[in-house]
Amino acid sequence: MPTEVADGARTLRTDPDRPPVAVVEPPGMSGKERAVFAVIALVAATGFAILALSRGEHVNSMWIVLAAVGTYLIAYRFYARLIDAKIHRPDDTRMTPAEEFDNGKDFMPTDRRVLYGHHFAAISGAGPLVGPVLASQMGYLPGTLWIVFGVVLAGAVQDFMVLHLSIRRRGRTLGQMARDELGSVGGWAAILGVLTIMVILIAVLGIVMIGALAESAWAVWAVAMTIPIALFMGVYLRYLRPGRVSEVSAIGVVLLLAAIVSGRWVSQSDWAHVFILDKPTLAICLAVYGFVAAVLPVWMLLAPRDYLSTFMKVGTIVMLALAILVVRPELQMPAVTHFAHDGTGPAFAGNLFPFLFITIACGAISGFHALIASGTTPKLIEKESQARMIGYGGMLTESFVAIMALVAACIIDQHVYFAMNAPPGLTGGTPETAAAYTNGLHLVSGAGTPLPDIDPAVYAQAAKDVGENSIVSRTGGAPTLAFGMSEVMHRTPLLNLVGDKAFWYHFAILFEALFILTTIDAGTRVARFMLSDAIGNVRGLHAFKDPSWRPGAWIATTIMVLAWGSILYMGVTDPLGGINMLYPLFGIANQLLAVIALCVVFAVTVKRIGLRWAWIPGLPLAFVLLVTMAASWQKVFSTNPKIGYWTIHAKAKEALASGAQTFQTAKSPAEIEAVVRNTAVQGTLSIVYAVLVLVVFAAAMIVVARWLRGVGAPPVEHDAPASHIFAPSGFVATPLEKQVLAEWREAGLDPAPVAGRQ
Fold first, then answer.
1. What is the DSSP letter of 335?
2. Do residues 617 and 157 touch, judged by C-beta distance below 8 A?
3. Residue 345 and residue 367: Cα distance in Å, rounded?
4. Which pLDDT band holds residue 307 (cuts at 50, 70, 90)?
5. Any idea what DSSP says for residue 5?
6. CA–CA separation, 331 and 413 (whole Å)
7. pLDDT at 305 over 80
């Protein structure tokens, strides 16, 4: 029942006796808005022009920030709206799964600001922090272009469209949607691919986090304290002060800052040893936490903890961006280095194509996001129109994190960057041997002139400045990002009063650990949903289809935690270094998962509206498939022992058979046996992933071809009941939305009640 308000704006009711449940804003832009976006476009274009064309000694890093932010704003305003208008056509008069199946546990209408925090925290793990740092070895330009344009045309499109599809399908997971839309063969291949890839993704995220927390009482204390803080926030928001989001946010931020500050005191106290844990112990603790977070009601721990972490994540990134604009550090890395051409980079081996794309991974497109967008988020979202802000907008925010990570790496002295990111086998592990190594890399400035040799004392002083014993071979990306952040923060007025370079370095390490942990807990819950969906397809086990059935939840969670926990334990005890061996597999698996998601989205888009706008998901599908297949081929068949898993496997077996006591960084026959075993697992997974994804792609193309011939099945979409709640679509309510909210208040009604809190 539409009601005309003014200038084409309308309010929509589903019950004549209740206030409106939806608004339709007038299309078009005012003259002021056009002028603002024209200026934004000009600034972004200027930034890209300077980055692409400048080949001098001095290129300011602020141009990367301005180019990226300008592009994000334009894409969100125009491209995301195009997708909504031409493909999604959101209808806020329909119930979302959160409203229809509200049980106060897994399904629950959640304030859009809290849900944005949960979604962003869940999708933004190690990838946007580590990948861009490692990819910086190829120069600042390739990474910047892929992160910015990749997210606009691929990553944000995938997240946005998968979220909308799941909302229209009772919050179904990606694997189940694939089975519904692509048929039995393609569906089961997708389910198996999603489940097995999920295991490796969570495990690698855990390896990166453990690398940041191991042997650090400060970091372990602060991260551990976020759990009771989140529990308090969950109880406060649900029972003590329902709906007081701003109030509980302020309390949570104060408590979080207290946890961070007190971490330094704990690390200097007599009981610091309690929080100094080795890597295997941390792996076990992480698995236990993942299990608990996945089975507790979502309002109790997961949503408030992720929302809390978002304040630190977004706040730190915004603070870093502003600091860059104030300090304006110059880029030390050239636009493109010779490692992009010869593939001999110390951070990772391989040429720009395809390895730049799979290394950056989450900063541009991440298949893992499709699991969150079809896992927890669609079960919590209040209105279909909020998907643009949460799905597309959330991914743009993660891309900005990746841009900040790339800038932090590229403003570091090149010698320091390569000394930190090269493994001990190359650097020797000491300042003297590291200086000899980096001096032999033939590093050049942005103008192409050779850099002078570095004195080993520079490495020793750099470590002292950040309160570490050494910075040599601190691989994995996280320490490099922390070093670059501390370099900017301690040079910024006001921030330098908060703490010295050592403080900001450890603050950044904690920031990274929080980033990753929030992805692990949400990922484990999503893995539980996916496994339950898969088991529910088996005859006699249909009870698993209900994600809130407690026995099923406990069984599915136990299986998934044991699966990723075993890979995690293997990684933290890997003689060749878990992150060095598993991160390329993580990147490939993550992008292959994106191919599965885009196959489903592409097939559904063609079924719903035909081919005219199907290029929107089709373009990223084609590119990401090409990249991942090329990378998979090289990881399986390359004869380069730095790239091919089976080549490393064969050489390790030869070493073992010959009686060798060492092999690369393996220092004993037992460790060589571990290398043989681990590379066999990694090589096998590479083959399995590629085959499953090709089956899914073939199934999707067959479904599309059948539909275009007029013989295919229609899309499987749920007919939702009429909605009885209201919520704004963006962070800030529009004047019309505020008017509707006022109507609800005047009627004495809660516009978005939650089961058990009414």
1. S
2. yes
3. 26
4. low
5. E
6. 9
7. no
The whole-angstrom separation of Cα 130 and Cα 479 is: 9
Query: Which tens digits make up the pLDDT trace of 431-465?
Result: 999 999 999 998 999 888 999 999 999 999 998 89
* Residues 276, 292: Cα–Cα separation, whole Å: 22
Which range (207-211, 252-256, 374-378, 631-635) has the least confidence? 207-211
Q: Specify the pairing of strand 2-6 against strand 22-24.
A: unpaired
Instruction: Tell me the average pLDDT of the chain.
Output: 87
- For 589, the 3-state DSSP assignment is helix
| Side chain identity, residue 462 | A
- Average pLDDT, stretch 29-44? 92
Q: What is the pLDDT of residue 756?
A: 44
Residue 740: exposure state from Cβ atoms within 10 A (0-12, 13-18, ≥19) = buried
d(CA 500, CA 489): 9
Assign domain 32-215+278-415+502-709 to its CATH architecture: Up-down Bundle (1.20)
Q: Average pLDDT in the 191-199 region?
A: 84
**Alpha-carbon distances of 308 from 324, 420, 518, 520, 526, rounded to whole Å:** 25, 31, 10, 15, 20
- Looking at the DSSP bridge assignments, the partners of residue 450 are 444
Helix (H, G, I), strand (E, B) or coil at 412: coil
Could you tell me the CA-to-CA distances from 415 to 125, 336, 434, 462 in Å, in that order? 28, 16, 9, 12
CA 205 to chain centroid, in Å, comes to: 10
Sign of CA dihedral 333, 207, 634, 639: positive
Measuring CA to CA, how many Å separate 618 from each of 602, 603, 703? 6, 9, 14
Structure tokens at 337: 């280095």
Other Cβ atoms less than 10 A from the Cβ of 3: the count is 11
The CA radius of gyration of the chain, in Å to the nearest whole number, is 25
Q: How many helices (H) and strands (E) does the chain have?
A: 31, 3
CB within 8 A of 93, min separation 6: which ones?
12, 14, 21, 22, 722, 723
The Cα 698–Cα 636 span in angstroms is: 21
For the chain, give every domain's residue range: 32-215+278-415+502-709
Q: Which residues, in sequence order, are CB contacts of 175 under 8 Å at separation 6+?
A: 187, 190, 191, 194, 195, 530, 533, 534
pLDDT(757) > 60: no
State the DSSP string of 500-522. Answer: -HHHHHHHHHHHHHHHHHHHHHH
Residue 251 has pLDDT above 50, yes or no: yes
* Burial class, 103, CB count within 10 angstroms (exposed 0-12 / middle 13-18 / buried 19+): middle
Q: For residues 731 and 725, what is the distance between their CA atoms, to the nearest angstrom?
A: 17
Collapse the DSSP code of 4 into the 3-class scheme (helix H, G, I; strand E, B; otherwise coil) and give the result: strand
How far is the C-alpha of 393 from the C-alpha of 398, rounded, in Å?
Answer: 9
Q: Which of 757, 749, 531, 758 is CA-nearest to residue 17?
A: 749
Tell me: the pLDDT tens digits for 139-171? Answer: 999 999 999 999 999 999 999 999 999 999 999
Q: Which of 349, 347, 268 is nearest to 642 (CA)?
A: 349
CB 143 within 8 Å of CB 135:
yes
Mean pLDDT, range 517-545, rounded to an integer: 79
